[in-house]
Amino acid sequence: MIHSSKMSVCAHFSEMHPAILPQVCELEKTAYSHPWTQGNFEDSLRSGYWAQVLVGDALDLLGYVVAMPGVDETHLLNLTVAPAHQGRGWGRHLLDSLVAWSRDQGATRLWLEVRASNARARRLYMAYGFTHMGERKNYYPGLGRQREHAVVMSLALA
After folding, report:
1. Sheet of strand 131-141, all strands in order from the earlier edge strand to the far edge
2. How far is the C-alpha of 46 from the C-alpha of 156, rounded, in Å?
3. Contact, 102 vs 110, CB < 8 A?
4. Which of 11, 63, 122, 147 could form an S-S bond across to 81 if both were Cys, CB 3.0 to 4.6 Å?
């Protein structure tokens, strides 16, 4: 059981499973201009990626995390906190869980890409200890035919 220090809400982690994907996809659509599809989540589950949901005490979906294990590293693919619950420490709890799992898998480094325009997420990752490693030019879809750069970040786990 996890408790948010900024609000009297308790939550717990559970494995993401196909039955919850419609709820996950609805949250995804509220959080992003270019959300993952249900197929993206289904592919991640079929591939055996680590996928967890964070559920509040009222059984509301607070957030989720999807990560791909690699040789000596983990790649964060999706970390989302429901917009109504952002700024309450849930992103940090999701990262704590991911880091603990990654270390248990023997990973020594955690990697991620984040939209250059996502200042809130970038602040969270920097405060957590991630280091800016570079950029992937035109990585994300943008408005119309435009593309947006990704900021590549990494966290040493050893």
Report:
1. 2-3, 10-15, 50-56, 61-69, 73-81, 109-115, 147-156, 131-141
2. 28
3. yes
4. 63
Contact criterion met (CB below 8 Å) for 150 and 133: no
What is the structure's pLDDT at 6?
Answer: 57
Q: Are 155 and 110 in contact (CB under 8 A)?
A: yes
**Amino acid type, 70:** G
Residue 39 reports pLDDT greater than 70? yes
Structure tokens at 154: 């990494």
Return the SS3 of 70: coil
DSSP codes of every residue in 79-92: EEE-GGGTTSSHHH
Catalytic entry in 125, 139, 140, 148: 125
CATH class of 2-156: alpha beta
Clarify whether 140 is annotated catalytic: no
Q: Pairing mode, if any, of strands 109-115 and 147-156?
A: antiparallel
Residue 5 has pLDDT above 60, yes or no: no
Q: Is 125 a catalytic residue?
A: yes
Give Cα 39 distance to the centre of its chain: 17
Instruction: List CB contacts of 19: < 8 A, sequence separation 6 or more.
Output: none
Catalytic residue among 113, 135, 139, 140: 113
